[in-house]
């Protein structure tokens, strides 16, 4: 029951606030229309309704606790409301008369606007007092009040593992078996050791290599073996053969 009362008072409070704002807007429009055609005069004439609007909002939203401070605040609100009503009354009366209202109409129309503002402001103060009393005496009503609707957060989609792309595996070829062959340099050296002083062509034929290969290996053997007893192949037959 307390929760329902709190929700109902809140909705009524917003409706009364809308009516109060409409009355302030009408009073504000009358004051601005009756003022001189310059910004300063229009701002001065618009200040009284705005001051009343702000004062009533403070009174209705801040709960009273009694005592001298609350009495002073209510008295100040009454003074501001009286000033705003007096100023707005004559502004609106002048506007109504200037726009064709005759007889008692120019003097009665402002009363309807000011009366609407007074009733709405008192209603706002009363609703604010009831809401503060309800929440102070029954805190469960505030706890049970339905929370504001929130946008549901979508659940994250389950993550699926993407199969890795198949990587082609290159087939390894078996290495060919190569029968090791004796180095040609070793063959030439062996034949040269057995046939000291033999021509290069003969050593090459015996070692199974070309004469140029045999000549290259023999030159290397001469460089690495600098002893006087090292066998030296004769080059003359090679020249004769080549000729």
Report how far the terminal alpha carbons are from each other: 133 Å
How many domain modules? 2
* CATH uppermost class of the largest domain: Mainly Alpha
Give the name of the CATH architecture of the largest domain.
Up-down Bundle
The rough form would be described as rod-shaped
Strand content: under 5%
Number of helices, counting only DSSP H or I runs of 4 residues or more: 9
Q: What is the helical fraction, as a range of percent?
A: 55-70%
- Count of distinct strands: 0
Global structural class:
mainly alpha
Order of helices and strands: HHHHHHHHH
CATH-derived topology of the largest domain:
Four Helix Bundle (Hemerythrin (Met), subunit A)
Question: Which whole number gives the mean pLDDT?
Answer: 76
Uncertain residue segments: 226-243
- Characterize the largest beta sheet: strand count, sense, and whether it forms a barrel: none
CA radius of gyration: 58 Å
- Give the oligomer, counting copies of the same chain as homo and different chains as hetero: single chain
Question: Notable features of this structure?
Answer:
243 residues, mainly alpha, Four Helix Bundle (Hemerythrin (Met), subunit A), Arc Repressor Mutant, subunit A, 68% helix, disordered C terminus
């Amino acid at each position: 029951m307390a929760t329902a009362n709190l929700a109902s008072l809140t909705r009524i409070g917003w409706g009364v606030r809308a009516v109060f704002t409409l009355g302030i807007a009408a009073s504000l429009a009358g004051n601005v229309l009756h003022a001189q055609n310059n910004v300063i005069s229009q701002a001065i004439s618009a200040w009284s309704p705005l001051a009343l609007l702000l004062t009533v909002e403070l009174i209705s939203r801040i709960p009273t606790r009694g005592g001298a401070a609350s009495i002073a605040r209510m008295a100040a609100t009454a003074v501001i409301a009286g000033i705003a009503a007096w100023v707005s009354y004559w502004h609106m009366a002048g506007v109504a008369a200037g726009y064709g209202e005759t007889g008692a109409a120019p003097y009665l129309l402002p009363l309807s606007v000011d009366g609407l503002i007074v009733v709405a402001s008192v209603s706002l103060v009363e609703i604010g007092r009831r809401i503060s009393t309800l929440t102070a005496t029954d805190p469960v009503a505030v706890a049970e009040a339905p929370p504001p609707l929130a946008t549901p957060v979508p659940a994250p989609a389950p993550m699926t593992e993407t199969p890795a792309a198949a990587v082609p595996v290159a087939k390894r070829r078996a290495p060919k078996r190569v029968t090791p062959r004796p180095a040609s340099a070793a063959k030439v050296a062996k034949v040269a050791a057995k046939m000291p002083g033999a021509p290069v062509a003969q050593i090459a034929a015996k070692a199974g290599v070309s004469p140029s290969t045999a000549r290259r290996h023999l030159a290397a053997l001469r460089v690495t073996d600098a002893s006087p007893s090292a066998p030296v192949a004769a080059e003359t037959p090679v020249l004769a053969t080549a000729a």
